Amino acid sequence: MRYVVIAMLVASTRFDLNAAQAGTTEERESLRGIKGIGVLIEGITPDARADGLSESEIRTAVELIFRSSGIPLLSEAKSSKPFLAPYLYVNVKALTTKLGLSHYCVEVQFRQYVSPVNRTEKSFPIHATTWQMSMVGGVGADNLRSIISVSVEPLVKNFANDFLALNPR
Where are the domains of the chain? Predict the structure, then answer.
Protein backbone atom coordinates (compact mmCIF):
# COMPACT_ATOMS: atom_id res chain seq x y z
CA MET A 1 0.00 0.00 0.00
CA ARG A 2 2.80 2.43 0.84
CA TYR A 3 4.35 1.90 -2.60
CA VAL A 4 1.05 2.80 -4.20
CA VAL A 5 0.97 6.05 -2.20
CA ILE A 6 4.53 6.88 -3.24
CA ALA A 7 3.69 6.19 -6.88
CA MET A 8 0.65 8.47 -6.58
CA LEU A 9 2.80 11.23 -5.05
CA VAL A 10 5.25 11.03 -7.94
CA ALA A 11 2.49 10.90 -10.55
CA SER A 12 0.67 13.85 -8.99
CA THR A 13 3.68 16.08 -9.62
CA ARG A 14 3.70 15.24 -13.31
CA PHE A 15 7.38 14.39 -12.88
CA ASP A 16 8.37 18.04 -12.54
CA LEU A 17 11.50 17.64 -10.43
CA ASN A 18 13.14 20.94 -11.40
CA ALA A 19 12.50 23.64 -8.79
CA ALA A 20 14.60 26.19 -10.68
CA GLN A 21 12.15 26.27 -13.58
CA ALA A 22 10.17 29.49 -13.64
CA GLY A 23 6.42 29.55 -14.12
CA THR A 24 5.05 29.83 -17.64
CA THR A 25 4.34 33.23 -19.16
CA GLU A 26 0.61 32.78 -18.49
CA GLU A 27 1.23 31.76 -14.89
CA ARG A 28 3.50 34.75 -14.28
CA GLU A 29 1.04 37.12 -15.98
CA SER A 30 -1.74 35.94 -13.64
CA LEU A 31 0.21 37.55 -10.76
CA ARG A 32 0.02 41.09 -12.18
CA GLY A 33 -1.77 43.61 -9.97
CA ILE A 34 -2.19 41.37 -6.90
CA LYS A 35 -2.29 43.63 -3.83
CA GLY A 36 -1.93 41.07 -1.04
CA ILE A 37 -1.53 37.34 -0.54
CA GLY A 38 -2.69 34.96 2.16
CA VAL A 39 -0.92 31.73 3.05
CA LEU A 40 -2.50 28.30 3.56
CA ILE A 41 -0.42 25.31 4.68
CA GLU A 42 -1.87 21.77 4.46
CA GLY A 43 -1.00 18.13 4.10
CA ILE A 44 1.19 17.52 7.14
CA THR A 45 0.34 14.06 8.43
CA PRO A 46 0.49 13.12 12.12
CA ASP A 47 3.50 10.89 11.34
CA ALA A 48 5.32 13.80 9.70
CA ARG A 49 4.51 16.00 12.71
CA ALA A 50 5.92 13.31 15.01
CA ASP A 51 9.10 13.35 12.90
CA GLY A 52 9.47 17.13 13.41
CA LEU A 53 7.66 18.77 10.49
CA SER A 54 5.15 21.49 11.40
CA GLU A 55 2.78 23.87 9.68
CA SER A 56 4.00 26.75 11.83
CA GLU A 57 7.63 26.33 10.70
CA ILE A 58 6.56 26.15 7.06
CA ARG A 59 4.34 29.24 7.49
CA THR A 60 7.21 31.12 9.13
CA ALA A 61 9.56 30.25 6.24
CA VAL A 62 6.99 31.31 3.62
CA GLU A 63 6.11 34.57 5.39
CA LEU A 64 9.79 35.41 5.91
CA ILE A 65 10.41 35.07 2.16
CA PHE A 66 7.38 37.28 1.44
CA ARG A 67 8.42 39.95 3.96
CA SER A 68 12.05 40.03 2.80
CA SER A 69 10.84 40.31 -0.82
CA GLY A 70 8.35 43.07 -0.03
CA ILE A 71 5.33 40.97 -1.00
CA PRO A 72 2.28 42.16 0.95
CA LEU A 73 0.83 39.54 3.28
CA LEU A 74 -2.85 39.55 4.11
CA SER A 75 -3.72 39.76 7.78
CA GLU A 76 -4.35 36.52 9.63
CA ALA A 77 -8.09 37.26 9.70
CA LYS A 78 -8.28 37.53 5.91
CA SER A 79 -5.91 34.64 5.20
CA SER A 80 -7.95 32.33 7.46
CA LYS A 81 -10.68 32.66 4.80
CA PRO A 82 -8.53 31.78 1.78
CA PHE A 83 -11.41 31.52 -0.68
CA LEU A 84 -12.14 35.24 -0.32
CA ALA A 85 -8.69 36.48 -1.36
CA PRO A 86 -5.69 35.34 -3.40
CA TYR A 87 -3.44 33.00 -1.46
CA LEU A 88 -0.39 30.79 -1.73
CA TYR A 89 -1.25 27.18 -1.01
CA VAL A 90 1.59 24.97 0.26
CA ASN A 91 0.88 21.25 0.55
CA VAL A 92 3.55 18.95 1.97
CA LYS A 93 2.90 15.22 1.85
CA ALA A 94 5.46 12.92 3.47
CA LEU A 95 5.54 9.18 3.90
CA THR A 96 8.11 7.45 6.12
CA THR A 97 9.01 3.86 5.32
CA LYS A 98 10.04 1.12 7.74
CA LEU A 99 13.62 1.63 6.54
CA GLY A 100 13.66 5.13 8.04
CA LEU A 101 13.39 7.02 4.75
CA SER A 102 10.85 9.75 4.14
CA HIS A 103 9.54 10.35 0.64
CA TYR A 104 7.81 13.66 0.09
CA CYS A 105 5.94 15.79 -2.38
CA VAL A 106 5.76 19.56 -1.99
CA GLU A 107 3.22 21.52 -4.02
CA VAL A 108 3.10 25.32 -4.11
CA GLN A 109 0.11 26.88 -5.86
CA PHE A 110 -1.18 30.41 -6.19
CA ARG A 111 -4.97 30.44 -6.10
CA GLN A 112 -7.30 33.30 -6.93
CA TYR A 113 -10.68 34.16 -8.37
CA VAL A 114 -10.82 34.28 -12.18
CA SER A 115 -13.60 34.93 -14.69
CA PRO A 116 -14.23 32.71 -17.72
CA VAL A 117 -13.67 34.58 -20.99
CA ASN A 118 -16.37 32.67 -22.88
CA ARG A 119 -19.18 33.91 -20.58
CA THR A 120 -20.11 37.24 -22.14
CA GLU A 121 -23.73 37.46 -20.95
CA LYS A 122 -22.84 37.43 -17.25
CA SER A 123 -19.42 37.19 -15.73
CA PHE A 124 -19.02 35.15 -12.58
CA PRO A 125 -15.79 34.45 -10.73
CA ILE A 126 -14.49 30.95 -10.15
CA HIS A 127 -11.64 29.90 -7.94
CA ALA A 128 -8.57 28.58 -9.80
CA THR A 129 -4.91 27.75 -9.47
CA THR A 130 -3.07 30.17 -11.76
CA TRP A 131 0.56 29.42 -10.80
CA GLN A 132 2.04 26.17 -9.53
CA MET A 133 5.26 24.24 -8.98
CA SER A 134 6.01 20.99 -7.23
CA MET A 135 8.94 18.87 -6.16
CA VAL A 136 9.40 15.31 -4.95
CA GLY A 137 12.30 13.89 -3.02
CA GLY A 138 13.50 11.76 -0.18
CA VAL A 139 15.34 12.32 3.10
CA GLY A 140 16.10 10.34 6.20
CA ALA A 141 13.18 10.34 8.63
CA ASP A 142 15.33 12.15 11.20
CA ASN A 143 15.91 14.97 8.67
CA LEU A 144 12.29 15.55 7.69
CA ARG A 145 12.46 19.21 8.73
CA SER A 146 15.05 19.76 5.98
CA ILE A 147 12.16 19.61 3.48
CA ILE A 148 11.51 23.24 4.39
CA SER A 149 14.92 24.49 3.25
CA VAL A 150 15.44 21.96 0.46
CA SER A 151 12.03 22.11 -1.22
CA VAL A 152 9.52 24.55 0.26
CA GLU A 153 11.79 27.61 0.32
CA PRO A 154 13.12 27.23 -3.27
CA LEU A 155 9.59 26.82 -4.64
CA VAL A 156 8.29 29.84 -2.69
CA LYS A 157 11.31 31.89 -3.83
CA ASN A 158 10.47 31.01 -7.44
CA PHE A 159 6.95 32.28 -6.81
CA ALA A 160 8.31 35.45 -5.19
CA ASN A 161 10.61 36.10 -8.16
CA ASP A 162 7.74 35.67 -10.62
CA PHE A 163 5.50 37.88 -8.48
CA LEU A 164 8.11 40.64 -8.23
CA ALA A 165 8.82 40.52 -11.96
CA LEU A 166 5.25 41.73 -12.54
CA ASN A 167 4.76 43.75 -9.39
CA PRO A 168 8.06 45.57 -8.73
CA ARG A 169 8.44 47.16 -5.30
Answer: 2-164
Q: SS3 for 144? A: coil
Is the pLDDT score of 168 beyond 80? Answer: yes
Counting Cβ atoms within 10 Å, is residue 96 exposed (0-12), middle (13-18) or buried (19+)? buried
Contact criterion met (CB below 8 Å) for 140 and 101: yes
pTM to 2 decimals?
A: 0.78
Q: What is the pLDDT of residue 114?
A: 80
The alpha carbon of 34 is separated from its chain's Cα centroid by a whole number of angstroms, namely 17
* Whole-number pLDDT of residue 9: 46
Pick the CATH number of 2-164 from 3.40.50, 1.20.1050, 3.30.160, 3.30.1490: 3.30.160
